[in-house]
Design goal:
mainly alpha, 2 strands, 241 residues, two-stranded antiparallel sheet, 2 domains, 3% strand
Length: 241
């Protein structure tokens, strides 16, 4: 099946949301949502993402409050990113969640248009990228469930949940470290994200391979050395390494 037209149309609608002015945002968001649920190729992937997705729990985990400030960080993994952003857009569209309150809370700026621009770039760009990767790549085991079925049952939901919690803390520490060089920060984040993706896709071989690099790299990074050992302990507890 040639899916280029489906992806290109989806990308175009995402860009319209990003490039819109705040006052016109409801219209372009509604158009994007309509396309998502009516296009067979896009919807089949979205439907997979929404299965067993606990929106309220994930939303709570995505909110990080520090004093009087709050930030909103998307969860790890293509599947969860797609599901999270789609749920938010639906709430904005049906009025269940006030978009103005949300964007000024988590993406504050001097004007509504600037705040809207920050929010859409933080949400819609990852949403677009994640969904397109899942639709386009037959090798995306999260989207198409083609990873080795012999590996999948070995990685339990409990293991994924516990490791995700630790990796989320590691990711936040790395992101907020102003003393890390860009090169090291990038390397650490690639390994952290890679390990999570391997866990989410239940790819036992990938978990073992990526963890080797993760372990050696984070051992030399003092702010996360203990957390890295916690990840190792958790993986050993579930007999994944």
């Amino acid at each position: 099946m040639n899916i280029d037209n489906n992806i290109n149309q989806f990308k175009s609608l995402c860009q319209q949301v990003i490039n819109s002015k705040f006052i016109l945002s409801q219209q372009v968001i509604s158009q994007l949502l309509k396309y998502v649920v009516t296009d067979e190729v896009i919807y089949s992937t979205v439907d997979l993402c929404m299965k067993n997705f606990d929106y309220y729990q994930e939303f709570s985990s995505s909110v990080i409050e520090t004093g009087d400030t709050a930030t909103f960080k998307l969860p790890y993994g293509n599947r969860k990113i797609v599901a999270m952003v789609l749920c938010l857009l639906y709430e904005f569209d049906n009025g269940k969640r006030n978009m103005s309150d949300f964007m000024f809370r988590y993406y504050p700026s001097l004007s509504a248009n600037d705040s809207y621009s920050l929010m859409t770039k933080a949400l819609i760009l990852p949403f677009e990228k994640s969904l397109c990767e899942m639709v386009a790549s037959k090798n995306d085991s999260i989207a198409l469930s083609i990873d080795d079925p012999a590996d999948r049952p070995l990685v339990s939901d409990g293991a994924i949940s516990q490791v995700e919690h630790i990796l989320r803390n590691i990711n936040a520490t790395i992101q907020e470290d102003q003393h890390l060089s860009i090169e090291l920060k990038t390397d650490y984040l690639v390994l952290t994200d890679g390990l999570y993706h391997a866990m989410e896709s239940r790819d036992l071989r990938a978990i073992k391979i990526i963890f080797i690099g993760f372990k050696h790299a984070l051992a030399n990074y003092k702010p996360c050395a203990k957390k890295a050992k916690d990840v190792e302990a958790c993986l050993k507890l579930y007999m994944l390494i």
